[in-house]
Amino acid sequence: MSVVFQRNQTCTSPLVPLNTNAVLVKNLYLSCDPYMCGLMRPTTSIEATYFAPFKPCSPIIGHGVAKVLDSAHPDFKKGDLVWGMTGWEEYSLITETDFLFKIQHTDVPLSYYTGILGMPGMSAYAGFYEVCSPKKGDYVFISAASGAVGQLVGQFAKLLGCFVVGSAGSKEKVDLLKNKFGFDEAFNYKEEPDLDAALKRYFLHGIDVYFGHVEGKMLDTVLLNMRHNGHIVVC
């Protein structure tokens, strides 16, 4: 999900400090992603191992699209469009620019850089093609398949010629997977009293690729239905 700012208000923006690589941006789109929930918990949470937890009384940090207003960084100049880590605020002074990338292609909606051309798209593409090493005809199962990453993995798999099944938590999401995203089959896991029977209904000979967003009982059941030399990605 992306959030767009459309507000007219006069304000004084901060200046870029001298002798730094800082970049001042005006935020255009912000992405609200599931991993952000973990950053609101104590630092022992899994998400906090690769992103710093949110600080009370400070702006939330997340992925977004922005326009450069001023820059002391040699790779960014005024007027550049960028995507990456920024603040949930109208203007952000970004001092850590390792996760800031210049947008080279502006012939698509900028909001795509919070989705298929941003973090969800990169996670889906790298996880599926690089980690899973899929091939045509593979049997692919995706849990939480209607999410930002899962629905992209399913579409990549269909383009490759795989048989794709997804699980989701409502009838509306199941319909979305089958009728819009082109999954071969989908089911509501909340309506399945026996997950093992549900998986065997769609994967009689086992699963080649599991792209998982869910642990616990779902993962335990999938492990019992994996084929030899199968691949699992835990996202």
From TrEMBL:
The name this protein goes by in its record: Oxidoreductase N-terminal domain-containing protein
PANTHER family given in the database record: PROSTAGLANDIN REDUCTASE (PTHR43205), PROSTAGLANDIN REDUCTASE 1 (PTHR43205:SF7)
Domain Alcohol dehydrogenase-like C-terminal, first and last residues per copy: 148-235
Pfam family, one: ADH_N_2
Alphabetical UniProt keywords: Oxidoreductase
InterPro entries found in the cross-reference section: ADH-like_C, ADH_N_2, GroES-like_sf, MDR_fam, NAD(P)-bd_dom_sf
Residue ranges of the TM segments: none
Domain Oxidoreductase N-terminal: residue ranges: 11-98
UniProt KW Nucleotide-binding keyword: no
GO molecular function annotations of the record: 2-alkenal reductase [NAD(P)H] activity
